[in-house]
Amino acid sequence: MLNNGMLHHVSLPVSDIGKARSFYEGVLGLEEDKSRPAFDFDGAWYKLGDRSLHLIVPKSEDHPTFRSDKAVDSHDAHFAIRVPSFSGAVDYLESKGFRKTTDPNPRPTPENPRPMRVNAAGKAGFPQIYILDPDRNVIEVNAEAAD
Questions:
Q1: Which superfamily does CATH assign the domain made up of 78-142 to?
Q2: What is the C-alpha to C-alpha distance for residues 105 and 102, in angstroms, rounded to an integer?
Q3: Mean pLDDT, consecutive 10-residue segments, the chain of 147 residues?
Q4: Domain 2-61 belongs to what architecture?
């Protein structure tokens, strides 16, 4: 029955909705979906193609799962955004302060607060970029082919 389904949305816990909005709108350039109901908890919804990303500020008693002090790790929970241009995405992210690193699992540091792992020819069969949001949620950005 579920094999005919499709992904509807991805939700992520965030600790500070202001910082999260600055990142997802100001850095990634996502458009907020204003149809979010008036839930009894803070959050925001963003459009991702014909799907959506839901950011949730959990209540402290909910014991949210945060990746505090973790590195960029493609084997950890993450979501992926497919873009039309791999090199365009790298250039754009660099303009927003992300810096390439050769470290396979980089952590933000004072010298590189926004590390970016770039796999132009990875084993997945398509090029990939891995970055972290302010709560260290892992985000993959990929393209059909390197350009």
A1: 2,3-Dihydroxybiphenyl 1,2-Dioxygenase, domain 1 (3.10.180.10)
A2: 9
A3: 82 95 97 95 95 92 79 92 95 97 93 95 90 96 91
A4: Roll (3.10)
